[in-house]
Amino acid sequence: MINGKTLILRFSSLGDVVMTVPIIRSLEKKHPENKFIFVTRPKFKSFFSEFNNVEIFELDLKKRHKGFFGIIRLFSDLKKLKPKRIADLHSVLRTQLLSFLFRMFFIKVSVIDKKRKERKALTRIENKIFKPLTPVHFLYQEVFNKLGFSIDLTKDHIYPPSKTFNFNVDSINIGSDKLVGIAPFAKHEAKMYPLDLMQKIVSYVQEKHTVFLFGFGKIEMETIKRWSNVFKNVYSCDDLDGFENELALISNLDLMISMDSANGHIASIYNVPVITLWGLTHPYTGFTTFNSDLKNQFCVDREKFPLVPNSIYGNKMIKGYENAMRTISIEEVLGRVNEILLN
Predict the structure, then answer these.
(1) DSSP letters spanning 196-265
(2) Same domain, 208 and 285
(3) Total number of domains in the chain
(4) Both 143 and 224 in a single domain?
(5) For residue 175, is pLDDT > 80?
(6) How confident is the model over 330-340, as pLDDT tens digits?
(7) pLDDT band at 174 (very low <50, low <70, confident <90, very high)
């Protein structure tokens, strides 16, 4: 039996935080008597409401925990919780300093190995070593196993039931038994399927199914509003009245189509099939959705664009690669959509 509290450090980004959920489920199943304190941003709290033995410590990176002295205050705040061990799933400057301070007080720390050398070899321009890296889910698993928890995602993970719809659907005409989520956007241009092609996918899918579009921010929502006005069976995530309701809907989808982005990861933790359209990133980087299917990964033609992937996070565009995602065939994507929805 492993006694005492375990602090989990993972501050951002949304997709990376969501990818920890299957790990926490496995921990709760194998170690229901243990207490886990997840140190992260308040906006990520909703993802952990299903757990009985997980408490969220809310970071305040704008005020109390901002800057160097903020990290010292954060350490002081966390030390008061009297943790027995630290799981650093982030391994950035902030968490590295926290880990160092905890070790000074003889508290056991396990830090994720991000395989930086292998990542560099996969994404470099010259002498690229094009082979798959360990999926991030299993890198997270390794952190906890080094602390003595002995979990196995392939055996210990159990999906929860879908969340209950708790929003008014009177204004939404669900004329099909299939609900499809489509997240057309990504944080970086290098990861985003051309909108003219994505519009064709939306147009095709909505002919027989109900489509919900997911996005964030003024520019994205303007596009979503325009499409939802044009197409009969297309609705905006704004119609769902809040993030909790978005999660409820996503957990009940029959399919999610997304870029290499957080919405795909969210759908996957609720056992929703996810079709991912990869831009200048690639499934080999280790950031595929949980329990992803190889048939659902659609990538740029590397014979025409051999430098893909050129980064892990898709934040770098290569001159001449602006139209690389146009080599992802709409017909092939829609063929796979039909296979999943008719199954």
Answers:
(1) HHHHHHHHHHTTTSEEEE---SHHHHHHHHHHHHHSTTEEEGGGG-SHHHHHHHHTT-SEEEEESSHHHH
(2) yes
(3) 2
(4) no
(5) no
(6) 999 999 999 99
(7) low
Decide if 325 contacts 333 (C-beta within 8 A). Answer: no
Provide the 8-state DSSP code for 187: S
Give which of 218, 224, 232, 239 is closest to 182, Cα–Cα: 224
- Tokens encoding 141: 């698993």
124 in the same domain as 10: yes
Query: Rounded to whole angstroms, how far apart are CA atoms 79 and 87?
Result: 14
**Stretch among 135-139, 201-205, 240-244 having the lowest mean pLDDT:** 240-244
- Domain that residue 139 falls in: 5-156
Q: Has residue 164 been placed in a domain?
A: no
297: Cβ contacts below 8 Å, ≥ 6 apart: 276, 278, 283, 288
pLDDT of residue 238: 85
256 and 302 both lie in a single domain: yes
β-partners of residue 54 are 36
Q: Is residue 165 situated within a structural domain? A: no
CB atoms within 10 A of CB 106: 6
Instruction: Specify whether 188 is located in the same domain as 151.
Output: no
Could you give the 3-state DSSP secondary structure of residue 191? helix
What would the pLDDT profile of 246-276 be if each residue is shown by its tens digit? 999 999 999 999 999 999 999 999 999 999 9
Asked whether residue 100 falls in the same domain as residue 187, the answer is: no
Q: What is the CATH number of the domain that holds 234?
A: 3.40.50.2000
| 284 DSSP assignment | G
Helices 136-146 and 21-30, axial angle in degrees (round to 10): 40
The reply to whether 129 and 196 lie within a common domain is: no
